[in-house]
Design brief:
Length: 179
């Protein structure tokens, strides 16, 4: 389920960042994912490419998160608690990715745009970018969002461990009260 939510997040994320810089996709991301070749025009509907790119870029983060959260949550815990812990960790992961993406937007928006020679090293068609400031902003958003997603996995797993500890302490206190 987390993989599906992460894939959907990626799709929405790409629709938003496409509005900031369509060149980030048409001259970099679509080529990077192999959906078009550097010298091709867009072969199919751009919306289909955005969906495919958004999904391909993020489903695996959800898969990794689900695996880690499940392993951390299920150990020595009731299933009801495991589900609640995992759900909370997932929310933490997504919120961290969103906040990180917003931070990336702010930094990218005010950063010096990548120069054309730097962009040319980044990708084949980047030397022809008409709006390097928008391209730079979209790039920052994407990079910060990945870091935020991975940081969110760590924070989510830590949240699960803290919740497990709290339940264990409460259970021990309840047992001592009965004695």
């Amino acid at each position: 389920m987390i993989s599906i939510a992460a894939g959907m997040y990626g799709i929405v994320h790409d629709f938003i960042t496409y509005k900031i810089s369509h060149e980030y996709y048409t001259k970099f991301k679509f080529v990077q994912f192999g959906f078009i070749t550097p010298d091709n025009k867009l072969p199919i509907n751009t919306l289909q490419l955005l969906v495919a790119t958004g999904w391909a870029a993020t489903w695996w983060v959800g898969c990794l998160a689900g695996l880690i959260f499940s392993l951390v949550a299920v150990y020595n815990t009731k299933i009801k608690n495991s589900i609640a812990f995992t759900l909370r960790a997932t929310v933490i992961m997504f919120l961290t990715a969103i906040v990180s993406g917003l931070l990336g937007y702010n930094i990218g928006h005010f950063a010096t745009p990548l120069s054309l020679p730097d962009l040319a090293e980044l990708c084949y068609q980047c030397a022809t970018i008409k709006k390097p400031a928008n391209f730079t902003t979209a790039s920052y958003i994407h990079n910060f969002s990945y870091v935020g997603g991975l940081l969110g996995i760590v924070l989510g797993a830590a949240s699960i461990l803290k919740q497990r500890h709290n339940v264990a302490v409460k259970t021990k206190l309840d047992k001592n009260r009965k004695i």
